[in-house]
Design goal:
Layout (H helix, E strand, L loop, with lengths): L1 E10 L2 E11 L4 E5 L6 H8 L7 E6 L2 E2 L4 H5 L2 E4 L11 H12 L3 H6 L16 H14 L4 E5 L7 H16 L3 E5 L10 E4 L4 H7 L2 H11 L5
Parallel strand pairs: 3-8, 3-9, 6-7, 7-8
Antiparallel strand pairs: 1-2, 1-4, 4-5
Helix pairs in contact: 3-5, 5-6
Length: about 220
Amino acid sequence: MLRAEGLTAIRGERLVFQDVSFTLPPGGGLILSGRNGAGKSTLLRLLAGLVPPDAGRLLWDGVDALADRTEHGARVALLGHQDALKPGLTAAENLSFAARLSGRPVRAALAGPDLEELPDLPARMLSAGQKRRLALARVSLSAAVLWLLDEPTLGLDDPAVECLGRLLAQHRDAGGMVVAATHVSLPLPGAETLRLGLDVLARKREFTTEDTENARSMHGGPSD
């Protein structure tokens, strides 16, 4: 189980979000919504262990999830805005490293997002939607329990979104967890929604430099 307690993120002197809390059980889904700049991508990076919170705690089964970043990293598969594909490699070759780590077959991963007919095509020749589907196939190859997806439907047409829905359902049925940031509807039935930025503007008016220093000192982070 993943549990966030009072997570706060500060960038420079800017309060991105404050006091974010939620619980995500095995098989659970959480949709992050909010305007541009509300902190959706920042929260995903924090949940992945790439950046520390300025206040609050992230717990995995009741234990500090970020105490061992290597161990936490093995739990997480992160899909960012960029597809992070190597253009000179074929579709299958782009998945080969993830396949070796997980012991899962590349062909099956390509079939999930309907790419089974393109294993030998260089990634540079794929359309934007096909590249996104290939990036999602790489996530599906991972043995990670927690999928963190930033705008996963970017560039996808309706049939591809349906394929995404099947991948998400299979992962959750196996006890996996999904946290996805999006501006559009996602095929994630039963997921909770966490809307960021609802009261951040009001908090920003009251959030001073002294507050920034206090939050960071409480978490043990740098103050400059």
